[in-house]
Amino acid sequence: MRWLRVEDASAVPACRQAVQVLAERLQFSAARIAQLALAVTEAASNLHKHAVQGSLLLCVNRDGAHPGIDLVTIDAGPGVRDVSAAVRDGHSTAGTLGIGLGAIERLADFSDLYSLAGRGTSLVARFRGGPAGGPPAPEAPWRAGLLRPITGETECGDAYGAVQAGGAVTAVLCDGLGHGPLAAAAAAEAVAAVLEDPAGQPAALLERVHRRMSGTRGGAVGIVRIDGPLARFAGLGNVAASIVSGGQRKSMISLPGIAGHQARAIRQFEYEVPPGAAVILHSDGISSRWEAAALPGIAARDPLLIAAVLLAAAGIHRDDAGILVLKP
Predict the structure, then answer these.
(1) Do 206 and 236 touch, CB atoms closer than 8 A?
(2) What is the C-alpha to C-alpha distance for residues 254 and 259, in angstroms, rounded to an integer?
(3) Whose CA, among 96, 137, 214, 216, lies 20 to 30 Å from 124?
(4) CATH code for the structural domain at 143-326
(5) Are 283 and 320 in contact (CB under 8 A)?
């Protein structure tokens, strides 16, 4: 993942060059690279012209037969009053030719936009790689996550992982203690400990994580297993976990402690997951005070868009931020 701040005109060509380099490394065709460059240029230009505190993310997507590229933009406002009009070619709010969002929608294999007037806007777009006329795009993803390091660092001390097998989903999010490479190493150890054998219950998996992290800085860890209408969750430390459905948010319980160093008790708790709900885990780099009711319809959106909206609405720049959204 690569975050780029877009606060002046010079950031637009930097974003275009970044996606060209990434697409070339992933062996995108020349025609597709040109399309990506256009889409990213339009997205960055929109941030520069219309948004406050805009950021653009490029990340590799490996859900399909060939690596793809995901584009995410977030900002702090002023929001889009009429989203449907904004994606129509020719619409503009600043007297310029408003073809940007419409072009992104046409060029991407998938795109979606969430905005509230007076607040921020989040955009996600997916671009498949591989040869033209290749396999169809994968089905809508059942999970997506975002990581953003604290300002001044290049490595994020948060990490996540998720696997779906036998009809159940097991996922983990770890906030490594502190920041930088050592925090990132601790978080990576926690994720590896779960994903190497994810078949157990969350409490047992958390016990394994606690042992494996003993040689690291340690961190806060949350592990969830979703099997049909039930979610079982075990957590140590300040990882927030919740179920969002029907405009309501139900929090799951994480016990005090530091995985790898201090765990007086490890327990798991069971919750009902309504149809269509989103299960969300995030570190304390995202404020836990966000309210589902203030984000109408958010649970029904694409997992990556949900993650982007919450990062934009509640992300804290003075800490690493990690968020994982599950919609199995």
Answers:
(1) yes
(2) 12
(3) 96
(4) 3.60.40.10
(5) yes
Domain 2-127 has CATH 1.10.490.10: no
Q: Give the model confidence (pLDDT) of 4-42 as tens digits.
A: 999 899 999 999 999 999 999 999 999 999 999 999 999
CATH 3.30.565.10 in the chain is located at 2-127
DSSP 149: P
CATH 3.60.40.10 residue window(s) in the chain = 143-326
Write the CA distances from 230 to 234, 240, 279, 306, integer angstroms.
14, 18, 11, 21
Q: Whole-model pTM?
A: 0.93
What's the number of CA atoms in the CB half-sphere (13 Å) around residue 76?
A: 9
| Separation CA 72–CA 125 (nearest Å) | 7
Please classify residue 2 by burial: count the beta carbons closer than 10 Å to its beta carbon, then call 0-12 exposed, 13-18 middle and 19+ buried: middle
Nearest partner of 217 among 256, 259, 257, 154, judged by Cα: 259
Contact (CB, 8 A) for 324 and 160: yes
pLDDT at 89 (0 to 100): 52
> Taking a C-beta distance cutoff of 8 angstroms, is the pair 305, 286 a contact?
no
Measured between alpha carbons, how far is 44 from 215 in angstroms, rounded to an integer?
Answer: 42
Report whether 252 contacts 291 (CB < 8 A): no
In DSSP terms, which residues pair with 282 in a beta bridge? 240, 323
Q: Which amino acid is at 61?
A: N
| Helix ranges, 132-288 (H) | 180-195, 202-212
